[in-house]
């Protein structure tokens, strides 16, 4: 899949039966504000590159993501939802310093 920069600032792939890893190239979408990848079958780690977009809403719940939540993901978060994944390890203490964070689950 090739990702291109666009003016539209939302990606929604909910209940789409997508598998594999989340592409690191997603981080190239610097105008991206909302990322909804709910109830798919993504596995592996969350790419640190996702922390480079100005995204303030990340819904990644209902996947098979594992390892840890990258520190880079705390750049501009307002809502973040990781429910129903398989994370291990610790959560970065940077999460506690997010001034705009409204939802974390």
Automatic annotation (TrEMBL):
Gene3D superfamilies: Ribonuclease Inhibitor. The keyword Transferase applies. GO terms for molecular function: kinase activity. This is Putative LRR receptor-like serine/threonine-protein kinase GSO1-like. Signal peptide: none annotated. Keywords: Kinase, Receptor, Transferase. InterPro entries: Leu-rich_rpt (IPR001611), LRR-RLK (IPR052592), LRR_dom_sf (IPR032675). The keyword Transferase applies.
């Amino acid at each position: 899949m090739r990702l291109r920069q666009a003016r539209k600032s939302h990606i929604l792939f909910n209940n789409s039966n997508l598998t594999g890893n989340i592409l690191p190239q997603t981080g190239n979408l610097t105008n991206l504000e909302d990322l909804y990848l709910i109830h798919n079958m993504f596995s592996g780690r969350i790419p640190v590159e996702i922390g480079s977009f100005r995204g303030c809403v990340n819904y990644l719940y209902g996947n098979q993501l594992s390892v840890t939540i990258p520190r880079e993901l705390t750049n501009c978060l307002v809502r973040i939802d990781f429910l129903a994944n398989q994370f291990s390890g610790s959560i970065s203490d940077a999460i506690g310093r997010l001034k705009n964070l409204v939802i974390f689950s």
